[in-house]
Amino acid sequence: MKLIDRYGRKINYLRLSVTDRCNMRCRYCMPAHGVEKVTHDDVLSYEELYRISQAAVTTGIEKIRVTGGEPLVRKGIVPFLERLSRIDGLKQLVLTTNGLMLDEMAYDLKQAGVKHLNVSLDSLNANTFAEVTRGANLVKVLAGLAAAERVGLPVKLNMVVMRGVNDHEIERFAELTRDKPLAVRFIEYMPALKEPGWQKLSLSGHEVLERLGERYRLDAVDRHELAGPACEYRIPGAKGTIGVITPITGHFCKSCNRIRVTSTGKARSCLFSEKGVDLKPILDSEDQLALQGALRTVVTLKPDMHNVSVDQCDHTAFAMSNIGG
After folding, report:
1. Mean pLDDT of the chain
2. pTM given for the model
3. Which residues are annotated as a binding site for [4Fe-4S] cluster?
4. Binding-site entries
5. Domain spanning 13-323: CATH 3.20.20.70
6. What average pLDDT does the segment 296-306 reach?
């Protein structure tokens, strides 16, 4: 079965948030004062999240990315992931993490059936990293990356590029791909919080490629069907790849293949759109066919493209941790 939206896009990718809690406070993800925490009763149980996943795969989803907040802070996450990995028809189970707990959990994640990790890492400098994350420990994250490498768990590193903050490290991140099979992706800063003057932090993907092009030859890499939104390249002879994700200056909406579900059961068609369906009442009814129908409805609500750009930012401000990154 296939999920096709109004614009002919095949929707085969679900981002599933299991918690709004996080052990970092990244400046682009949540305001300095933090966010109002969702109550325990509002967060979906693992059984409810499993039922959503099962319904999604039945209707045509082939890839599930488990997100947060930080998914590894939720107790019982490994058995849940193992159960997800066994859903008949699911081709790829992946997970996004900030890496703080990866050192002690990498082996268990691999055994549970996680195919690869996306690790958020915005600086290789301890002081800059602490500034961006409001105090997190870079050494812990690097230990987590080493653990993932030891157990053979492929990693994509996500770097949100911020002008005047970490953009001087672009080349250093690119160098990581020479000797290790890492996929390093440079992501344009997104104004989720709509903070005044956010544009000064913005650095386009085009400029990132221009800077890298001054030092390296970059060969384009073909995308596979379940790939994310990155345009990918490889330095000749490198073991890894470089990707650029341009949600602001180069909308990839025409090839968007995803929907998302928050930890409280709100199914959304787009990160920057509030259109969606509350799945909680349907979960309460335990009607799996109705759940499948609701997910199809979410797909029909998917917009042609979002309206966020350097010059336009009319969405309602939100914390990424509440939506699912």
Report:
1. 90
2. 0.92
3. 22, 26, 29, 253, 256, 270
4. 15, 22, 26, 28-29, 65, 69, 96, 120, 156, 190, 253, 256, 258-260, 270
5. yes
6. 86
